[in-house]
Write a structure and sequence with these properties.
By secondary structure, the protein is an alpha/beta fold. It has two helices and three strands, in the order βαβαβ. It has helices at 16-27, 49-59; strands at 6-12, 36-42, 63-67. Strands 1-2-3 form a three-stranded parallel sheet, with helices on one face. α1 packs parallel to α2 (49-59). The N and C termini lie far apart (29 Å).
Length: 72
């Protein structure tokens, strides 16, 4: 992904239910996937955030998941 022009950073904490709406919109972008990457930073969520993001990562090579265990 060396041609990436835009990085979209989504920071989240225990919002797996509404995170899906955000990721759905990003997944359906009309821009070529090589143009942008989506990085989801999980701030030590205790809900299904990791599972939700991993589903999108499996379908989209331009999606990344980062787990941050130190909250704040």
């Amino acid at each position: 992904m060396s041609d990436v022009k835009v990085s979209i950073i989504v920071c989240t904490y225990n919002r797996s239910d509404i995170l899906k709406y955000c990721l759905d919109s990003l997944e359906k972008q009309s821009a070529d996937k090589s143009f942008y990457e989506v990085i989801v930073v999980d701030n030590n969520s205790k809900d299904e955030t990791k599972k939700v993001v991993e589903e999108y990562c499996e379908r989209n090579s331009n999606f990344r998941y980062v787990f941050e265990e130190n909250q704040g």
